[in-house]
């Protein structure tokens, strides 16, 4: 399954950036260091990076490749984004967890690596949904980024991506590693990376592994550091180690006229339909508390033919009929007046909506 991304698509995305300023800043820093001037209270890591680029690796995880790739990246002191093929993730969940445990970021690269634009909308949704589920099941977190195989996309695909809350990521620079590029050629291609951009590489080529230390060295010499891809902008940015779990909004405050808490009903749950497609839908439940709580459980009753296939920001018991969802480890504690959400994917028609929502807190 060799990817074959069109070079034109990658090249068309290239943007100009303020290189001279970045170079000047890096040069000034080097001058200051070389001349022995004290760089007062400078956070050394932040000061060394005048811009961020994203190293991306598609098509894994695969036994025999991914572990070596992770170790090479760790040895080079960089983090990268892995766009996993869903069925590979399903077959190798331990490798997906290894990516996560190595502080790599994980994106969705479809289930079977098809030419997505040749699929029906329902098939597109299936390719994306199954991969979201496989990665969520392996790591506990569903991806926020989607890279279409062969970098082929259209309006229908982008609409499906949006249904799953995914940001489409192309590539500014094509390493050509899929095209038997030599290690020298891969390093040369990576040297074109500018701040904010991402480079397309793959999980499997040996030449890519060999190129990584030289790529990182080249970037460092230009003041560029390896960063994450912002789900908001699709551009490479500084790593955010405080990234909240997906779909978890900041706590909100209710007006002071809130009635006094009733211990037996310290939380409430409300449902909304996020999106629907043929044969499935995505729902979201908001849990609001009227008193400080440390755990919550929501029960809801699905209509006939509906079955939950995936839940995030919560842990589900049951898939049909009355389904119980308790908080995840990180969103059970709510202040009085606080709220959180969990989301789910379900098979079946979105109508009628789930009924009988109740929230209880021990
Ligand atoms: Zn691919």
Distance between the termini: 51 Å
Mean pLDDT across the residues is 83
| Beta content | 25-35%
Major beta sheet, specifics? 6 strands, parallel
Number of helices: 10
Share of residues in helices: 25-40%
Q: What is the radius of gyration computed over CA atoms, rounded to a whole number of angstroms?
A: 23 Å
Bound molecules: zinc ion
SSE arrangement, N to C: HHHEHEHHEHEHEEHEHEEEEEEEEEEE
Q: What general form does the structure show?
A: globular
Word description of this protein:
This protein is α/β, with parallel strands linked by helices and 362 residues long. 29% of the residues lie in helices and 25% in strands. Strand 9 and strand 10 form a beta hairpin. The chain is globular. The relative contact order is 0.13. It binds zinc ion. Zinc ion binds next to loops.
Write the layout of secondary structure elements.
Elements: H1 7-12, H2 19-34, H3 44-48, E1 51-58, H4 66-76, E2 81-84, H5 86-91, H6 93-101, E3 105-108, H7 121-139, E4 145-146, H8 155-163, E5 167-168, E6 173-174, H9 183-190, E7 198-202, H10 206-221, E8 224-226, E9 228-229, E10 236-237, E11 267-277, E12 280-289, E13 297-301, E14 307-312, E15 314-317, E16 322-327, E17 339-347, E18 355-360
Helix pairs in contact: 4-10, 6-7, 7-8, 9-10
The protein binds zinc ion.
The site of zinc ion has 6 residues, from loops.
């Amino acid at each position: 399954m060799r990817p074959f991304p069109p070079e034109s698509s990658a090249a068309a995305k290239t943007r100009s950036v303020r290189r001279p300023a970045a170079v000047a800043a890096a040069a000034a820093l080097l001058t200051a260091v070389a001349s022995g001037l004290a760089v007062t209270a400078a956070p050394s890591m932040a000061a060394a990076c005048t811009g961020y680029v994203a190293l991306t690796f598609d098509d894994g995880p695969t036994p025999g490749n991914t572990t070596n790739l992770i170790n090479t990246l760790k040895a080079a002191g960089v983090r990268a984004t892995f766009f996993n093929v869903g069925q590979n993730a399903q077959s190798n969940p331990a490798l997906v967890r290894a990516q996560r445990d190595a502080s790599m970021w994980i994106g969705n690269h479809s289930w079977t690596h098809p030419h997505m634009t040749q699929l029906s909308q329902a098939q597109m949704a299936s390719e994306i949904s199954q991969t979201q589920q496989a990665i969520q099941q392996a790591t506990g977190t569903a991806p926020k980024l989607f890279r279409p195989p062969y970098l082929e996309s259209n309006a229908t695909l982008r609409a499906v991506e949006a249904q799953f809350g995914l940001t489409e990521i192309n590539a500014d620079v094509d390493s050509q590693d899929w095209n038997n590029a030599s290690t020298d050629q891969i390093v040369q291609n990576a040297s074109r990376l500018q701040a904010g951009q991402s480079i397309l590489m793959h999980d499997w080529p040996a030449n890519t592994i060999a190129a990584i230390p030289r790529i990182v060295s080249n970037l460092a010499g230009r003041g560029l550091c390896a960063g994450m891809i912002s789900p908001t902008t699709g551009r490479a940015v500084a790593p955010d180690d405080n990234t909240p779990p997906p779909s978890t909004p900041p706590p909100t405050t209710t007006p002071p006229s809130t009635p006094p808490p009733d211990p037996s009903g310290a939380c409430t749950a409300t449902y909304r339909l996020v999106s629907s497609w043929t044969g499935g839908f995505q729902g979201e439940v908001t849990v609001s508390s009227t008193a400080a709580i440390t755990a919550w459980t929501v029960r809801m009753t699905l209509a006939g033919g509906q079955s939950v296939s995936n839940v995030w920001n919560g842990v589900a018991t049951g898939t049909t009929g009355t389904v119980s969802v308790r908080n995840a480890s990180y969103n059970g504690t709510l202040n009085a007046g606080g709220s959180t959400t969990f989301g789910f994917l379900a098979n079946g028609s979105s109508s009628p909506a789930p009924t009988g929502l109740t929230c209880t807190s021990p």
